[in-house]
C-alpha cells in the first residue's frame, strides 16, 4: 500500500484538458476545448456503458446461476460472453408495442430520463488513471442530486404506462427512494465531516493518509475502516435507493409483474433495464469513492482504474449475492425499516461522528 | 473561518461544461439506441397487442386506481427532512475547519445543529406515534386483530 500512498492518486489535470493536450486540440481555442470535453464525455459514457453491458446480460446470469447450482449461458463464445451481442441485437430488433392507454410524451421520455440521470452522475467520479470528467466543489452533493432524478423517471414510467401494476410500481419506487434518500445523504454527510469538503478528489486524497502504519504495509484511512458503522448504513440505504434485494419492492415480480417496466418492450425495455444497472454502478461508484478510497490500491497510480473497477464490481457482486440469498421485505416493513430504523440510526451516526471529530480535532 | 465570495474562475466553469457534455452524451446514447432499434424492428400493428397487460385477462376498470394515503404522508415527511439535509451540507463542510481554527468552541458549532436535528426528530416521533410511517394497519384493524380468538 506504500506505493499508493506515496504517489499522488490522481493528477490535478482532469480528463478533458489531458485529452486536449494529447490530441493538440487545446491549440484551437474554445472550439478545441469544447471538442476535447465532448470526447472525454464520450469516453466516460462508453466506459460505463461497456461495464453495464457485461453486467446486465452476462455477469448477472452467471452469478445467479452459480448461487443456484446451474450452468447458465455457455453457448456463444467463451463462457457464453457472446450473449452480450446476441441479446443486444435480439432486444433492439423486437417490435415496440405501445400500450393503448399510454401517455405518449411521458412514456417515451421516461427511459431517457432514467438512463441519462444515472450516466450524468459519473461526471464527478474520480475513476483513477486520470479519468475524471469534472471536479466541482459540490461533487458529492451533485452525485446525490443527479442520482435522485431517477425517481422522476420511475414515476413517469409508472404513471404514463396506463397500467395498474406500473402505477403501483412507480409509486412504491418513489416511496422507497424518499424513505432511504435521507439516511443515504445523512450518512454520506458523516464522511464529509472527516474530509471537510464535498469535492470528490479531496475526499479521495483525505483517505490516502495511513490509518495504521505497520512498517511493511500502511493501512490507508479509508472511511469504511474509520467508520464501519456508517459504511454499513450507507450500503443498506444504497441497496434500497437502487431498488435491489432485499428492497426490490418496486418490481416485486410475484406481486406486480415487473412494476413500472411492465408495459415497456423492445428498446424502451432495454433502456429501463440498462438504467437500473447504471444506477447500481453509480451507487457502487459513490460507495467506492467516499468509503473505499476511490481508485487507491497497491501498485502504481496508473492502475487506479483497475482498482476502481474492482471496487464497483465488488459492490455489484454484493447486490447479486443478496439477490440470491435474502428474501424480499414487504412494503410496510420497507417503510418502517427506512423511517424508524435507518433514519434514526443515521442521525445517531452523524451526531456521534461529529462529536468524535470535534473532540479529536 | 472566513467567508469568501468569489466569481467562478475558468477551471470551475470547465467543470460544468464537462458535466453538460456528459449530460448531452447521456441523452444521445438512449436516442441513438432508439434510432438503431427503429431501423431494425418490425411493426405489425394489431389492436389486441396494445391492450393493457393484466396477466392475460381482459383489462377491467380504469388504470388510475386509488392508492394508499401513506404514500402522501411519507412524501410530506420527506420534504421536511430533505430541506434539512440541504442545511446539513454546508454545516458538514465547514465543521472541521471551524473547530481547527479555534474561532468557535465545539459547543457553539455542534450545539445548534444537534438542537435543530432534535426538533425534527421530535417531529418524526410525533408522526411515528400517529402512525404516519406505519404502512398497513389502522388502529381499528389492530384492535380487531387483538380481539380475534
UniProtKB/TrEMBL annotation, chain A:
One of its GO terms (cellular component) is membrane. It is found in: Membrane. The keyword Membrane applies. It is a multi-pass membrane protein. One of its GO terms (molecular function) is NADH dehydrogenase activity. GO terms for biological process: aerobic respiration. Pfam families: NADHdh. The keyword Transmembrane helix applies. The chain crosses the membrane at residues 34-59, 71-89, 109-128, 140-162, 182-201, 222-240, 267-294, 301-322, 342-360. Keywords: Membrane, Transmembrane, Transmembrane helix. InterPro entries: NADH_UbQ_OxRdtase_su1/FPO (IPR001694). HAMAP family: NDH1_NuoH. This is NADH dehydrogenase (Quinone). It comes from Natrialba aegyptia DSM 13077. The lineage of its organism: Archaea, Methanobacteriati, Methanobacteriota, Stenosarchaea group, Halobacteria.
Amino acid at each position: 500500500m506504500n506505493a499508493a500512498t506515496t504517489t499522488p492518486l490522481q493528477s490535478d489535470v482532469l480528463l478533458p484538458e489531458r485529452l486536449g493536450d494529447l490530441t493538440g486540440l487545446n491549440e484551437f481555442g474554445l472550439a478545441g476545448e469544447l471538442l476535447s470535453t465532448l470526447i472525454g464525455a464520450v469516453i466516460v459514457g462508453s466506459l460505463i456503458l461497456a461495464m453495464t453491458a457485461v453486467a446486465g446480460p452476462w455477469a448477472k446470469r452467471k452469478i445467479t446461476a452459480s448461487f443456484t447450482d446451474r450452468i447458465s449461458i455457455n453457448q456463444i463464445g467463451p463462457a457464453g460472453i457472446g450473449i452480450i451481442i446476441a441479446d443486444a441485437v435480439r432486444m433492439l430488433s423486437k417490435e415496440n408495442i405501445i400500450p393503448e392507454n399510454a401517455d405518449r410524451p411521458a412514456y417515451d421520455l421516461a427511459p431517457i430520463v432514467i438512463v441519462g440521470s444515472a450516466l450524468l452522475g459519473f461526471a464527478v467520479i474520480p475513476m483513477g488513471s486520470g479519468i475524471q470528467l469534472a471536479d466541482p466543489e459540490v461533487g458529492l452533493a451533485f452525485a446525490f442530486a443527479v442520482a435522485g432524478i431517477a425517481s422522476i423517471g420511475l414515476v413517469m414510467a409508472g404513471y404514463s404506462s396506463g397500467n395498474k401494476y406500473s402505477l403501483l410500481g412507480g409509486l412504491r419506487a418513489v416511496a422507497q427512494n424518499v424513505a432511504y434518500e435521507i439516511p443515504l445523504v445523512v450518512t454520506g454527510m458523516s464522511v464529509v465531516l472527516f474530509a471537510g469538503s464535498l469535492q470528490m478528489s479531496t475526499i479521495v486524497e483525505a483517505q490516502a493518509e495511513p490509518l495504521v502504519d505497520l512498517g511493511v504495509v500502511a493501512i490507508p484511512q479509508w472511511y469504511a475502516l474509520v467508520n464501519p458503522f456508517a459504511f454499513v448504513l450507507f450500503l443498506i440505504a444504497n441497496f434500497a435507493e437502487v431498488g435491489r434485494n432485499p428492497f426490490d419492492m418496486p418490481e416485486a415480480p410475484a406481486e406486480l409483474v415487473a412494476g413500472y417496466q411492465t408495459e415497456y418492450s423492445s428498446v424502451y425495455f432495454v433502456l429501463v433495464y440498462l438504467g437500473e444497472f447504471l444506477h447500481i454502478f453509480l451507487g457502487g461508484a459513490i460507495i467506492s469513492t467516499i468509503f473505499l478510497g476511490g481508485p487507491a490500491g497497491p501498485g502504481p497510480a496508473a492502475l487506479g482504474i483497475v482498482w476502481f473497477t474492482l471496487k464497483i464490481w465488488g459492490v455489484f457482486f454484493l447486490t447479486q449475492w443478496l439477490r440470491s440469498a435474502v428474501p424480499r421485505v414487504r412494503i410496510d416493513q420497507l417503510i418502517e425499516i427506512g423511517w424508524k430504523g435507518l433514519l434514526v440510526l443515521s442521525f445517531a451516526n452523524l451526531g456521534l461522528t461529529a462529536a468524535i471529530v470535534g473532540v479529536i480535532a | 473561518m472566513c467567508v469568501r465570495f468569489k466569481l467562478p474562475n475558468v477551471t470551475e466553469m470547465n467543470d460544468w461544461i464537462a458535466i453538460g457534455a456528459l449530460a448531452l452524451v447521456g441523452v444521445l446514447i438512449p436516442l441513438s439506441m432508439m434510432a438503431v432499434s427503429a431501423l431494425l424492428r418490425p411493426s405489425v400493428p394489431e389492436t389486441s397487442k396494445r391492450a393493457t397487460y393484466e396477466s392475460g385477462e381482459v383489462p377491467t376498470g380504469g388504470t388510475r386506481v386509488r392508492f394508499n394515503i401513506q404514500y402522501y404522508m411519507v412524501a410530506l415527511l420527506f420534504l421536511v427532512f430533505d430541506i434539512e439535509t440541504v442545511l446539513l451540507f454546508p454545516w458538514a463542510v465547514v465543521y472541521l475547519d471551524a473547530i481547527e481554527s479555534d474561532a468557535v468552541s465545539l459547543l457553539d458549532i455542534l450545539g445548534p445543529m444537534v438542537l435543530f436535528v432534535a426538533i425534527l426528530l421530535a417531529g418524526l416521533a410525533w408522526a411515528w406515534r400517529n402512525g404516519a410511517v406505519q404502512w398497513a394497519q389502522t388502529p381499528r384493524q389492530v384492535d380487531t386483530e387483538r380481539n380475534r380468538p
